[in-house]
Design brief:
Blueprint (H helix, E strand, L loop, with lengths): L5 H6 L4 H10 L4 H9 L3 H9 L5 H4 L7
């Protein structure tokens, strides 16, 4: 939490709702946090979502089970 590792919090079992609340107390929008978790700027994340989101290929499980 102190490092503001948004994706790390989720990987450790954190809840996205509470993670976004922590971000909001710091003045960050959910869009900002989601962009950081995706490794992109808030603007690039917004543009990706406006254009339909991620492609299905980038959402597939690396293990191929899902």
């Amino acid at each position: 939490v102190l490092d503001r590792d948004w994706l790390g919090m989720i990987k450790l079992g954190g809840n996205i709702y509470y993670t976004s609340k922590i971000g909001a107390t710091l003045g960050h929008s959910f869009q900002y946090i989601a962009g950081k978790m995706c490794g992109m700027s808030q603007e690039d994340y917004a543009e990706m979502m406006i254009n339909g989101g991620r492609s299905p290929e980038s959402n597939r499980s690396l293990s191929g089970k899902y």
